[in-house]
Structures are given as structure tokens and as C-alpha cells.
Amino acid sequence: MGMAANVGPAPSEMNKSIWVVYQDKKKNYWFGSNGNGAYCYDGKNLKQFTTNDGLHSDKIRGIQEDKSGNIYFDTPNGVSRFDGDKFTQLIPVRSETNQWKLRSEDLWFKGNGEITGAYRYDGNTLYHLDFSSFNSKWIDPDYAVYSIYKDKEENIWFGTLSAGVCCFNGVTLNWIYEKELSVLDDGRVPAVRNILEDNDGFFWFSNILSRYKILSNDQKNQGTIEYEKVNGIELSQQQVKMKLPYFNSAVIDNENVWMTSYNEGVWKYDGKKLTNFQIKDGEVNALIVSIYKDNAGVLWLGTDNSGVYTFNGRTFEKFKL
Predict the structure, then answer these.
(1) pTM above 0.70?
(2) What is the pLDDT of residues 47-102, one digit of tens each?
(3) What is the Cβ-side half-sphere exposure of residue 165, based on CA atoms within 13 angstroms?
(4) Are 298 and 311 within 8 A, CB to CB?
(5) N or C, which terminus of the chain has less Cβ within 10 Å?
(6) Residue 142: what pLDDT?
(7) Closest Cα partner for 28 from 70, 77, 62?
(8) Gap between the Cα atoms of 152 and 147, Å rounded
(9) Is the backbone of residue 170 left (phi > 0), alpha (psi -120 to 50) or beta?
(10) Which of 54, 58, 40, 21 is nearest to 311 (CA)?
(11) How many CA atoms lie within 13 Å of 58's alpha carbon, on the beta-carbon side?
């Protein structure tokens, strides 16, 4: 289903609830809002695209690009592709397990939080892949996918609501299940919203409590991953402390892990010290949804209530068109 994008008058500003920031190969910036569609900024002009133009939903949960330069929007209603002229909805095909494949050019999507499993797009077909066809020993976990991450060896990782994390190595799905990756003792379910492999080869799963060294993740260990779990960031020796030691988004640069928590600002960890950046919009705390590193290495923040911020080398400042 395709629809031409009839771009109306250019909006003078963006919606304040921007959850996703992405820069494409042509250096355009894309901003995905939580209810007002997507914006494209080429450095001069701002365009807005909504369901009126053919987007599946005005709530954007992820933005990616394929090798041909098509832009893909992950939304709660499904995936939309934009070829620079019109939008096309990708209709998912329910797949048997044999469509679990690992190919470097494929795109992976979370879909919405209600349908468990993940989506793999091979350029022709969007396959809906189910985790439940793989034996899992966890009792009634929720497999809703909250994050997807490709590691340095091109394995695909999935962070779930309460089933821990899962790695697809091209042959088998292997799981890590630990208490901090599931339902906490007080009933809270933080979900694995972010997965990151750091410069030392350790994996971070949405929290600073632990880091994981993967020892073996091959098809011989059907269903499991051999790993070593080490302490994350020791908060007792830090001047600034996280109230809840979980992050919803993170990126890595040459020396630092940058993490965001919804209402505690941005945290920078240099391997020894934790530094906090409070992000204010006037008197109000910016509620941070995501952090993104663009093609030039500049850090961007997407927020729920005060638009977009960029890092100027010292502090995060509000992005103005």
C-alpha cells in the first residue's frame, strides 16, 4: 500500500515529544514524535510527515535506513517505508522458525509491545518471528521486545519486558535470565530497554548493576549463553548516585558510556567516575527518552516534553532550527 507524501506548509517548529533522533546517509536528520508523526530536517527546511501522508502511525518508536537509502519507521501499528517520495506499509508474514536468519543487510524491528517476537525484513518480506517456538524454561515471562541490538560480531540481541535478553547467533536463540533483567522484588518491571557492548567487550543490559562478559554463545549450547557477570558501577564510591540504577537509552564514544534515565538527566561514565548532566527546559526537568550519536559523533537527546537537545562538548543545549 503506497501513498504519496503531500507535504503541506513547512511547520515552523517540532512537537515537544520527540522520542527518536536519526541521521541518514545524506545527512538529513529525522525526528520521530510520540503522536505527531516524523520530521525531516535537511539543515535548512523542516518537513513533517503524518498518517495523512501514509505513515502507519503518528507514534514513532524507531527509525532506520537500508543500503538503498529508504527510511523505515517502526511504529506501534507496524512498519512504514519511505522511498523519498511515498510511504509503503510493510505487511508482516507470520513465519516458521526457518525464517530466523542472520544476514548483514537485513533490518530488524520491534513492532509494538503487544505482539511478542521480532520482525526481520530482507528487502522483500517482513517476517514476524516468534520466540515461543524455542524451548524456554522461564515461567510466564513476557517476551515483548523493548530493544534490538547488533553486536560487533553481528549477532542480534533482543531485550524483553521480563524474559531477560536473548541472542540470535544465526542458528540458535540463546538466553540470559537474571533477576535484574526481569521483575524486581518490589514488583517493578524495568524491562531491558537498551543493550550496549562497550569498548572492553562487556555487555550492559539497561542497568549499571552488572556487566556481562560473553564466554560462549554457539549453537552447541542450545538455548543458553555461557557468561561471566561482573559488578557494574560501584555507586557507594560515586559522588553522584542514580536513584534507580537503570537506564532507558545509552551510546558509547571513545572513552565514555553515556546513559539516560527518564527524569534524572544524562549520566556519563568514564570507567571510573559517574557524572550527571541535569537537562532543564526553563524550570522543568526534561524527561529523556533516548540518546543518539550522529554520523559526526555528536550526541543528541530525544525527550518526552521539551524537544531535542545536542551536546556542545560541555553541556546539552536545546536544539533550535
Answers:
(1) yes
(2) 999 999 999 999 999 999 999 999 999 999 899 999 999 999 999 998 766 689 99
(3) 30
(4) yes
(5) N
(6) 79
(7) 70
(8) 16
(9) left
(10) 21
(11) 11
Cβ distance 278 to 238 under 8 Å?
no
* Spatial contact of 205 and 195, defined as CB atoms under 8 Å apart: yes
CB 208 within 8 A of CB 242: yes
Q: Round to whole Å and give the CA distance between 87 and 170.
A: 31
Q: Cell numbers of 75, please?
A: 511504529
pLDDT in tens, 172-190: 889 999 989 998 889 899 9
Contact in structure between 191 and 207 (CB atoms under 8 Å)? no
What residues pair up with 30 in beta bridges, in sequence order? 22, 40
- Alpha-carbon distances of 90 from 1, 54, 63, 191, rounded to whole Å: 8, 12, 14, 27
Q: What are the percentages of helix, strand and coil residues in the chain, rounded to 5? A: 5, 45, 50
Cross-strand partners of 207: 246
